Amino acid sequence: MKSLGSIRRDFAPWNDPNAKPYIQFDKVTKKFGDFTAVNNLSLTIFEREFFALLGASGCGKSTLLRMLAGFEEPTAGRILLDGQDLRGIPPYRRPVNMMFQSYALFPHMTVENNIAFGLKQDGMPKPDIAARVAEMLKLVKLEQFAKRKPHQLSGGQRQRVALARSVAKRPKVLLLDEPLGALDKKLREETQFELMDLQQSLGLTFVVVTHDQEEAMTMADRIAIIDKGEVMQVATPAEVYEAPGSRFVAGFVGNVNMFEGKIAHGEAGAASIDAGNGITIRTENAGDAATGAAVAFAIRPEKIRISSTRPAGAVNAIEGEVYDIAYLGDMTVYHVRLDDGQVVRASTMNAARITEDPLSWNDRAWVSFRPDAGVVLTR
Amino acid sequence: MNATWSRFNITSIVLGFAFLYLPIVLLVVFSFNESKLVTVWGGFSTKWYVSLFHNQGLMDATWVTARVAVISATVATVLGTLAALTLTRYTRFKGRTLFSGMVFAPLVMPEVITGLSLLLLFVAVGLDRGFVTVTLAHITLTMCFVAVVVQSRLITFDRSLEEAAMDLGAPPVKTFFQITLPVIMPAIVSGWMLAFTLSLDDLVIASFTSGPGATTLPMKIYSQVRLGVTPEINAACTILIAVVAVGVIIASLANKRREVQRQRDEQAAQRG
């Protein structure tokens, strides 16, 4: 079976027409004075899903999260959780918990009192609270730090306390606002996997807000790409990367080469695109773009091969000159300037340590790709 | 730091400190004077301290001052904290600018005017001048100082702490008492201390608003000085200075210790 990218597991309620939505944003608009933060946005999230809201800062993604938590009320539209309209329900009565970007640990309380805070509000019996706190401390591996105050912890430890505190009440939904934003790169990568394991073992629905596409791609089942308060695309990481729905999404997630052109001839999904300056691109992924339509052909750098001679039998091959080379260790990125001036980015895995006759600056080179390697974008 | 003890530096330091502290040192020294004449040294003695404790007028005044200071500082702290909360939290209500101006006006208002206007008010409403009126006047005077101290703390307060508490199920009132109040408590305590000290040494407003039977210590000292300075007054002032100095030293030592402890903790945390 052919599939886009790799599929993590057999979990895809969004493809099941009978699946019951768990969280629903129904035509939600949020205005702050004259500024529209969220514009008539609809979104469906399923139970036990790890859902990411991805966008640049100020795109409205945090406002969505805050509306779900109850800190903001929508100006128009409804938010439903498990079929219940959340309008008018204050944050302290909503079955959702949030992990704050600043962690918001209570500075005057010890780690265990921080974790116990939410449980005490529910009037849970004391022995049960103690047991749950111990369980949470074990979960985030902070048993020996129970009596410490937040300022006696490192950044990574604080992050884990914040996490333990927000899941201690077993909320229906856990909201995470840039959960890894304050950690350094190495710790961030480790924590991504920890978060995924935690979500699996607790069986909770996670909604995470992030501006880091790598983070979203790693952790989420599905990603919603938000721009100017509107949803640009909702899809699995593989779909977002391999089949972006628009020029914006293609450019926002990962690196991409874009050729603007017109469909010269197309039938049954296959088409030739006239990209100007004598460049014709043949693709099998034209979708339903009609002949004559103005389109963009988008192709990822790692799907482009670079060679010093024209590869035999290549359907798409364009000649140019090596303009820049970036050696990154695991791979090398070439910038090739085509004869019409456009720069194409091609990356090659450095599978072998020693390369014979490597390309160098100002060498003539051919970039080539298969007809199924790129996608045609009409929007 | 590369301080050189040049002649110029030493001279300026001596002159500076002398200007600031010589009068106080003289006062303290002469409180131990055997002679009744304030300006003539007649040998060391602690007799003025003994006679001080037998001076019923001074002891009464001290007691009045202490009660006025504690009560007015406490009420002013509650009101000032509420005003600060209103000003930082509700930034958009009608008349906010006016309210803010009114709260902080007593900061710059000449004390004579505050005192006089309060006196006129108390006379107009027929309130007999005495303990109650002094206390009320001191509340008006010190509330704005508390509001300034607490407001500056609230401005840097991380609102997400309150949101986190509510998110975890605490209603607003509970959130205030369990999260907001403990976090801003140091500022409230400093506000109280400030109000207490201001009330303790106020002479002008107390003179306007006090009545028979409610003479505060500064008033008493001032009136006795007009009849001639006795070493007894020097002794009373020395005790006052000692109390304030000990308080300030304890507070700054505690602060310093906490800071050092905090830095040590943070370094330990960074090491893992």
Instruction: Provide the gyration radius of chain B in Å.
Output: 24 Å
CATH architecture of the largest domain in chain A: 3-Layer(aba) Sandwich
CATH H-level superfamily title of the largest domain in chain B: MetI-like
The shape of chain A is globular
- In which range does the helix fraction of chain A lie? 10-25%
Query: What is the number of helices of chain A?
Result: 8
Regarding quaternary structure, what we see is: heterodimer
* CA-CA gap between termini of chain B: 33 Å
Low-pLDDT residue intervals, each spanning 5 or more residues of chain A: none
How many strands, what sense, and barrel or not for the largest sheet of chain B? none
Structural class of the helices, strands and pairings of chain B?
mainly alpha
* Arithmetic mean of pLDDT of chain A: 85
Average the pLDDT over all residues of chain B and give the rounded result.
85
Can you count the beta strands of chain A? 20
Report the order of strands and helices of chain B: HHHHHHHHHHH
**Which CATH architecture of the largest domain in chain B would you pick?**
Orthogonal Bundle
Q: If interface size is counted as residues with C-beta under 8 Å from the partner's C-beta, which chains form the largest one?
A: A-B, 30 and 24 residues
CATH class of the largest domain in chain A: Alpha Beta
CATH superfamily of the largest domain in chain A: P-loop containing nucleotide triphosphate hydrolases
